[in-house]
Amino acid sequence: MKQRKGVLIILDGLGDRPIKELGGKTPLEYANTPTMDYLAKIGILGQQDPIKPGQPAGSDTAHLSIFGYDPYKSYRGRGYFEALGVGLELDEDDLAFRVNFATLENGVITDRRAGRISTEEAHELAKAIQENVDIPVDFIFKGATGHRAVLVLKGMAEGYKVGENDPHEAGKPPHPFTWEDEASKKVAEILEEFVKKAHEVLDKHPINEKRRKEGKPVANYLLIRGAGTYPNIPMKFTEQWKVKAAAVVAVALVKGVAKAIGFDVYTPKGATGEYNTDEMAKARKAVELLKDYDFVFIHFKPTDAAGHDNNPKLKAELIERADRMIKYIVDHVDLEDVVIAITGDHSTPCEVMNHSGDPVPLLIAGGGVRADYTEKFGEREAMRGGLGRIRGHDIVPIMMDLMNRTEKFGA
Amino acid sequence: MKQRKGVLIILDGLGDRPIKELGGKTPLEYANTPTMDYLAKIGILGQQDPIKPGQPAGSDTAHLSIFGYDPYKSYRGRGYFEALGVGLELDEDDLAFRVNFATLENGVITDRRAGRISTEEAHELAKAIQENVDIPVDFIFKGATGHRAVLVLKGMAEGYKVGENDPHEAGKPPHPFTWEDEASKKVAEILEEFVKKAHEVLDKHPINEKRRKEGKPVANYLLIRGAGTYPNIPMKFTEQWKVKAAAVVAVALVKGVAKAIGFDVYTPKGATGEYNTDEMAKARKAVELLKDYDFVFIHFKPTDAAGHDNNPKLKAELIERADRMIKYIVDHVDLEDVVIAITGDHSTPCEVMNHSGDPVPLLIAGGGVRADYTEKFGEREAMRGGLGRIRGHDIVPIMMDLMNRTEKFGA
Q1: Is there a contact between B394 and A78 if contact means CB atoms under 8 Å apart?
Q2: Which cysteines are joined by disulfide bonds (chains A, B)?
Q3: DSSP string spanning B111-178?
């Protein structure tokens, strides 16, 4: 039995709702997508609910689900993925957080991003914190880009049900950290101590003395949120399916999810996760990786951003760019030897300007696939697709089965 | 982001099977329903299994499921809903029962409804029981309509797994109460004592002395069944979804379910839950309530009765009356600002003359809805609908998501 390779392409936030400006079509229906339409003709469509019908998914929970894990059982916060995504090496019992450098004046947060402090300044401040703050557990504090940083408390995973101190708007004092159980109460106490001591170090740091003199907002306070630890999964993707798996991703959060479950992660030059990303660089990298890997996951972010920005025409254009990315891949593989799945991690309808619980159209084409009657890729056409309405966690098993890599249960 | 309002219309027992008398159509397919057909064109259809495929649902379990609760986890008997539905104020730890006044002669139940005793006589007898029966717990005993009454044991909710003493046919002695655990064993003992003492009070009551002289069956015994307590739900509907919710209902059992989960319940003049109900009074009330409420639930009962009575043409006529009720609502709202769902709580096929486990056609139309290819509302057309085949408990999350009232899980 021939084993096929798998290509999973996630166009972030792909699904949408009918839009007047597009004549009642969705961006995917409006866009000119000859390659995806061709794949729809020779393949099979359906709708997938990333988590369950009507439930908006986050990017992290949606990817966990699409990679086959029940997010209600596996998800334990975003921080761990963010930390992996910025290149930290973590242990499974570490607890990680997203951090903002912020400005505190007279007990009130006056700027949640410390005047968008530069990456260089932030890294220097992070170093000072790492060297001078003393708390009862080992920690890693690392600057990411701009005002963003990551905090890791070693060995504190059990306390992941801890809240945040971010008031989420300027003019308010920091929140006290909340907790849901004894283990996270301990973490909350450590975080309060950490924030207090970091404030002392930051407030008198030469970089902030200089910013103060220049009239710039000082980066003298830390806002900590998004506690997260290693997802509670029975087995890493690569072990579970016995495949060599690679991901082509630019966004830290999604990189982190892919790393956490065993993918080798690549970010080709030019891939940014922003509107200006180089999708053809991703296509070339994917084709190259298909030589060595059994399963390649390609993530395309900007479709989601266009939904958040309520820009239907831009979303349609980005889908057309994604179509060209997919064409390059299709042109460089033998479709008999590959199973290609294309979907979104969730819907980000322009009218909602956020993730929604609408199902996401799904396309599977390649070797072994039973073609249905569908003619093009789109929300309405997917409703009559042969895959029916499935859950996000069904996608990978269906792919692996078409790839002839599943195992029989029973005799 | 605009938040929409929701209208959920339940045509009780709507689903049916093909009927020779209707040329092989179902009553819904046979009926002339221009408004629902219009909504099907601009909206989306599907099939919903109230509980799960092939499983007939009761009206209480079906409504619990459609309101988003798993009835296998949440349902704890019907009595509580009946008691709420007849206007009793209950605490969450109360245990309630449906009661019949019945006739006992020589140790045998000779009439399960005591000659359909009048409401006035029954209320007088109920008063005598309330005043003269002494058992080890506080109780409320209240006459409803005709031979029907309600019993509430205060604070005894834990014992809801108690059986009944109703032999369900005349000529048999009352059953002893059964039980499934220690808490319900105690309730069974209390009920045996209650029934015995009530029998003593009733048997010598002047009303029964008079009935005996007139040759009428005496109402000297109580048949107690349908033990029920507050449903085991994580949160009331109104709290869970942060909406102000109203119900337009006439039937006690469904009223009770709606009250239990936080709805304000209205029964406009003329709404009876019988064939003679005034559906236009319901429509007007619903439109009025939409000014103040975020979510309005309208229940239409007689379609179910026509199924129980195996009267296909009457069922079709009732569906046409429901269509006019829906037209009034559609004419008085802006469909861009509202999400309307129409379905049944279960199928009541004429050939079955009872609830069946057939899936129920479902229609959703209004703002944000992705239209599918369907053209009219009916069982067969629903099979190719874009909603696919979902569960009853998916309906409200899908509505709330289109109403832009859901919250993201994950980051």
Answers
A1: no
A2: none
A3: ETTTTT--HHHHHHHHHHHHHH---SS-EEEEE-STTEEEEEETT-GGG--B-----SSTTBPPPPPP
Same domain, B197 and B157: yes
Q: Helix, strand or coil for residue A3?
A: coil
B41-80 per-residue burial string, b: 16 or more CB within 10 A, e: under 16: eebbbbbbbbbeeeebbbbbbbbbbbbbbbbeebbbbbbb
Based on the domain organization, do B196 and B65 belong to the same domain? no
CA dist A129 → A134, A197, B37 (Å): 9, 9, 66
Smallest Cβ–Cβ distance between B411 and the set A51, A55, A78 belongs to A78
Q: Is residue B410 part of a domain?
A: no
- Looking at the fold, whether B43 and B108 belong to one and the same domain comes out as no
Query: What is the distance, to the nearest Å, from the Cα of residue B230 to the centroid of all Cα atoms in its chain?
Result: 15
Cβ pair B409:A78 closer than 8 A: no
Residues A392, A244, single domain; the answer is yes
Q: What residues of chain A lie within 8 A of the CB of B1, using their CB?
A: 351-354
Residue A87 domain boundaries: 83-229
Q: Are residues B130 and B249 in the same domain?
A: no
Of B341, B345, B342, B366, nearest in space to B355 by CA = B345
Nearest to B218 by CA among B197, B201, B202, B198: B202
- Cα-based distances in Å from A144 to A25, A109, A263: 39, 21, 22
Q: Do A380 and B387 touch (CB under 8 A)?
A: no
Q: Which residues of B touch A392 (CB under 8 A)?
A: none
Question: Do B390 and A60 lie within an 8 Å CB cutoff?
Answer: no
Whole-number pLDDT of residue B187: 98
A260 lies in a domain? yes
B2 confidence band (pLDDT: 50, 70, 90): confident
Count contacts between A and B (CB, < 8 Å).
102
Does the CA dihedral B198-B199-B203-B204 come out positive or negative? negative
Q: Which of A16, A30, A383 would you mutate first to test chain B, the one with the most B CBs within 10 A?
A: A383
Nearest to B406 among A55, A353, A389 (CB): A55
Cβ neighbours around A49 below 10 Å, total: 27
CB contact, 8 Å: A66 with chain B?
Answer: no
Mean pLDDT per 10-residue segment, chain A (411 residues): 95 98 98 98 98 97 96 95 93 96 96 93 96 97 92 97 95 96 97 98 97 96 97 95 97 95 97 94 98 98 97 98 98 98 98 97 98 98 98 97 97 92
- Among the three residues A194, A229, A264, which one is the final residue of a domain in this structure? A229
Is residue A409 one of the residues assigned to a domain? Answer: no
Q: Do B406 and A356 touch (CB under 8 A)?
A: yes
- What total number of domains does chain B contain? 2
Last residue of a domain, one of B197, B228, B259: B228
**B324 found inside a domain:** yes
Taking each helix axis from N to C end, the angle separating A279-292 and A312-331, rounded to the nearest 10 degrees, works out to 30
Tell me the residues of chain A between 1 and 30 that have a Cβ less than 8 Å away from chain B: 17-18, 24, 26
Q: Are residues B214 and B136 in the same domain?
A: yes
Residue A380: CATH number of its domain? 3.40.720.10
Q: How large is the C-alpha radius of gyration of chain B?
A: 23
Q: Does A355 sit within 8 Å of B397, measured CB to CB?
A: no
Residues 369-388 of chain B with CB under 8 A from chain A are 369-373, 384-388
pLDDT in tens, B380-395: 999 999 999 999 999 9
B259 and B224 assigned to the same domain: no
Chain A residue closest in CA terms to B400 = A54
Residue A59 near residue A53, CB atoms below 8 Å: no
Does residue A242 sit in the same domain as residue A215? no
Nearest by CB to B397, from A60, A357, A380: name it: A357
Residues of A in contact with B388 (CB under 8 A): 47, 383, 388-389
